[in-house]
Amino acid sequence: MAGGITETGEPYSPFVGLVYMFNLIVGTGALTMPRAFATAGWVVSLALISFLGFMSYMTTTFVIEAMAAANAQLRWKRREQEEVEDSDSTSEYSDDDVIIRGRSEPETRPILSIQRSGGHGDHFDIVERVEMGQMASMFFNKVGVNMFYICIIVYLYGDLAIYAAAVPISLMEVACGNHSCSAGSVNYNDTDTCWGPVTRKDAYRVFLGVFTLLLGPFTFFNAQKTKYLQILTSLMRWIAFTMMIILALIRIGKDQGEGHPPVADISGVPNLFGVCVYSFMCQHSLPSLVTPISDKKRVGTLVVADYVLILGFYVLLSFTAIFCFKSSLLHDMYTLNFTDNCHVLDIPALRYFLGLFPVFTISTNFPIIAVTLRNNWKTLFHRDGGTYPWVVDRIVFPLITLVPPIVVAFCTHNLETLVGVTGAYAGTGIQYVIPALLVHYGRRHLEPVVGRDAVNKHRSPFRHTFWVWFVVVWATFCLMFVTANIILTDTKK
């Protein structure tokens, strides 16, 4: 995710890239969106998600431009190294000749002049997968690089806390919920009994403990999601999402919808902002997604199409939810509304499938995210030429990766808040601030090298500097607004 130059991977068509990007963006955040919509009001939600989708699209184009700039930088350095080696090999020249040759050529010769002297292809072609961490190392100073890794680490901690809470919640609802069709949707409390003297909160913590024991050890090793596992989880995800949308539409079509969401409620906006930012997150994975695309001429069109489809999907999922179910009965995780309401779905097997669907999909992601976080910790503290002691490498780093999110999940299982806070803070940094600064400093860094006449064919449509600073100012305003709202809310309690 945030490492250096990695293997490009098997190439695939632009259409496959579109599908992969859709699957990357649409994840856990989508399941928390209906409740956030119901809290903030449908008009405010529609306006905000449309604007945030546009902002995410803009910063996605920033990252793609920065990737092209990084590839150009790598080619320039490679050519420069080749020239140094060539000059070393011509040792038959006299010392005076070498000095004259060295003075006559500038230290940083533009790429265009190198290209004219025998290079082939476009230097801005994206052929090497340069991860965001490597781009930060190329374009930022040391402080900027450290801030980047801290931001990534905080975001991944939030991701793991969300995953660690989502799985036990789903298991608790399936084990303790109403599946008898003897009643409609019920709002349960944590103190309600699950089985015997065991409360729902106790059951949640038991399932959290089991989840930790089963998946926690993967943090101490390397894990990666196989192609077939990715296909299986994607298939399950789309079966579940399609079922929920169709079932809600059928109920609304029969005039049985119970939802009457408000038009606008400003108090719900900060949390909706965080949920929407989290739900549009893809910038940190773009290098591994875009680089293998075989024909990158249509990358811009692909990105536009993806964002339009995803925005339409989010709106359809959330609007069918808020008009189908009462706002007070919407769960933090939308799938759970179908497990205890037999008026919507009266087939037990399908109710169990929807209830357990997050368990399967999230459980396959948890080890990968944990290993990514562990590796980012190692990168943050790594020093050139240094190695970590075995205990630090194999025990300390995995523990500081695993323990904090499990503790957070143990203390709270409010998914809406976890997603909102993760999106509003770390998500704002990764989705807005880092892409804007990468493209800004990438342009400044390459201008003396490539010259003003060079054209990055992957440059963002938002090429004016105004857009870069607009994103930074917007991100700062959002952080201030969300923080002020949290403080004022806590003061009122």
Describe this structure as you would to a colleague.
The chain is mainly alpha-helical. It is 68% helix and 2% strand. It has helices spanning 14-25, 28-40, 42-89, 95-104, 111-116, 132-139, 142-176, 200-215, 227-253, 269-279, 286-290, 299-324, 348-381, 390-411, 415-450, 465-492, and strands spanning 5-6, 129-130, 193-195, 198-199. A two-stranded antiparallel sheet has the order 1-2. A two-stranded antiparallel sheet has the order 3-4. Helix 1 packs parallel to helix 12. The radius of gyration is 25 Å and the shape is globular.
What is the topological layout?
Blueprint lengths: L4 E2 L7 H12 L2 H13 L1 H48 L5 H10 L6 H6 L12 E2 L1 H8 L2 H35 L16 E3 L2 E2 H16 L11 H27 L15 H11 L6 H5 L8 H26 L23 H34 L8 H22 L3 H36 L14 H28 L1
Task: Describe this structure in a few short sentences.
By secondary structure, the protein is mostly helical. Helix content is 68%, strand content 2%.
Helical content band: 55-70%
Could you give the order of the helices and strands? EHHHHHEHHEEHHHHHHHHH
What is the multimeric organization of the chains shown?
Answer: single chain
- Poorly predicted regions are 1-6, 98-120
Radius of gyration: 25 Å
Provide the structure class. mainly alpha
What characteristic shape results from the CA principal axes? globular
Mean pLDDT: 83
Q: Major sheet: size, sense and barrel closure? A: 2 strands, antiparallel
Number of strands: 4
Strand content: under 5%
Q: Strand order within the widest sheet?
A: 1-2
User: How far from one another are the termini?
Assistant: 40 Å
The DSSP helix count reads: 16
